[in-house]
Amino acid sequence: MKSIELKESEYIVMPAKIIEARLMTANEKYFKISLDGGFSLDHEPGQFVMVSLLGIGEAPISVSSSPTKRSYFELVVRNVGRVTNALHQLKAGDVLGIRGPFGRGFPVQVLEGNDLLFVAGGLGIVPLRSLINFVIDNRRDFGKAHILLGCKKPEDFLFADEIKNWEERMDVNFSCTVDKADPDWQGNIGLITSLIPGIDLHPKKTFAIVVGPPIMYKFVLVEILKKEIPENQIYVSLERHMKCGIGKCGHCQIAQYYCCKDGPVFSYDQIKANPEAL
Amino acid sequence: MKQFAVLKKENLDAFISSLAQTQKVVAPVSLGYKNFSFQNVTSAKDIAIRYIPTILPPKKYFLPTGETLAAYDKGKNSLNAVLEYEKMVIFGVHTCDLAGIQCLNMVFSDKPKDINYIVRKNKIAIIGLECNEYCDEYASCHVVNNHLPNGGYDLFFTDLGDTFVVHINTMLGDELVDKAGVLKAADDQTLKSLELLRAKKQEIFKNEVNVRHDALKLLFNRHALQSKVWDELDKRCLACGNCTNVCPTCYCFDIIDESNLDLNSGLRYRRWDSCQSEPFAKVAGNENFRQERGQRQRHRYLRKFRYPVDKYSRYFCTGCGRCSRTCMADISLKETINDLAREIK
Q1: Residue A160's domain spans which residues?
Q2: Using CB atoms, which residue from B79, B283, B295 is nearest to A240?
Q3: Which residues numbered 23-52 in A keep a CB inside 8 Å of some CB on B?
Q4: In this prediction, what percent of chain B has a pLDDT beyond 90?
Q5: What is the DSSP secondary structure assignment for residue A83, as one 8-state letter?
């Protein structure tokens, strides 16, 4: 058996450095990362990267920042597994490896000029934020923007400063809700589905972009379909287990699709027939 | 380049020994009753010319059970990509396994290409061996059109009794023949015998299931998703992963970091994984998108008979019968297909 070093390989990582890291909630940590050599990640909103920690392994993580920020990118990581646990130990100045960006992001060119209904549940705001901020940074290229946000508890909201900005902007319609709250919470209480019927939208020219946990899709999609938004104008981003990121290892397969390559963003009509998708 | 050559059986040893002098040669070897395995050989005496499909298909040389992808050094913050390969000849590959290698070639040359696989594949010479009759009752090579050779080899041997007739398919094959120096050009009589044998095979090999080749994919259409057949498999499957390990076209893998004892350097390697294991599709937070064994079995069948048909226009079942032969719960591919066919009728 011969072993040689490869100059080219899909498994080579780009060296990167954490320039800022802080806990956002008890379980979610924020990272601002720059690639060595001043390279831009050059991702599309909705794409993901494989984060590599030597001796620990790799994990797929959604890019949360808009590609309009070119000198750095942002990740938000929930501490749930081996790699994410090790990531949570890292601080500004620490190094890691990045592969990607991978996958098919949100179809920005298709969305341009149209009204947008963003629906994010829980951690779904992390990938969706890359598109929301892209739209805000290119605001006049898109039609109306409705942002609906849902969380279990008020303290689960991520990016509080940015959310405040979305709430205050006159060119964005924002509402949020929590499942449960203390009496001093002044906002909506209830599931995110309760926010959808009240939205005033033009179904033919509206695209809905929905990101959240699997259970949320089942209910939110019903409400969105009631608004008569066509099935091919509804986009979701799906989470799957991934090892390679390049459509080979098989872990992320959803019917004929590899989530890492054909997704993670899918239109509803692409996946609605498959019982394993949602 | 002559197309066909003849090797007298008494010269097989000279042929194999000549190959083994300059490179590794692997061939089917008997491990006891109905158990065969591709192993290193140096002489024809080691080789089981008549064998039923080996425990593992020759995929183990193309996609090794474990393979280093990169070596890392934490101190230097370096990760260097690594390629492992070995020049070798695989002798005695049946037509089902030739088809299996063709399937893997498609997957790993699909973009982005897997360089490790592609370089390794090009270092391996393949010598096929024809099945003159069925290996056993588990095989279903006819329904997937793999009972006859469909390319994918450098040389192809057919047993004609006292001799092998050898189809020379590539320049590499021609060089192997020249180097051995014990093969002669085939005469018309030999070619006539080969034709007769193939005609006789048309009588022997018949559809092993109650569905024809073209209709097979229709069994796995949208309606098949809801079939009761999967509920039945759900009750029987033990989720051991034997079926995927022995399948010549299963290629799913896991990527793992393994530290050296210095806790500084180590290897990032991949190893075979199985969609039949419970955590395969589970994400962090424990959501599992194929929680039930029946769903996982359905996934396995769809990965053989539906998804690759849409993507690569071919079945990824080679008809080798290994999954049925090895299943501890007696789940039979032929039975599953017949059960699905019965539901439709």
Answers
A1: 108-237
A2: B283
A3: 52
A4: 94
A5: H
